[in-house]
Amino acid sequence: xxxxxxxxxxxxxxxxxxxxxxxxxxxxxxxxxxxxxxxxxxxxxxxxxxxxxxxxxxxxxxxxxxxxxxxxxxxxxxxxxxxxxxxxxxxxxxxxxxxxxxxxxxxxxxxxxxxxxxxxxxxxxxxxxxxxxxxxxxxxxxxxxxxxxxxxxx
Length: 154
Description:
By secondary structure, the protein is an alpha+beta fold.
């Protein structure tokens, strides 16, 4: 019976964390009815599922909540500087329907520069005009047609 209560409490805690993760409600907004209902639901779930099934689910929910609160989003990290969209270029060049990546993870894509019939010097000058001095600090830079640059830095 004691193990059943522990499992019910753990399931209740998981339900509260899930609700907080979904931003539906916070623990301070819950009344006694919601508490009793969640404990009853937790007891019912705990009666049918073993502790070995509930524990990994509970740990995954806790990890997801902690990641969300700390701002971690997996592989993509939040940049300190918002992406920059430059004004249209003055120079004529081949029009492209899709954006052409010129820098990926701090590395210049020379084959794409050749498609534009431009040099690395030209790219560096354009980036300097926009306030970017170090190419290694640029996560992604693309040029859409002859319209504008899109730059996202680390």
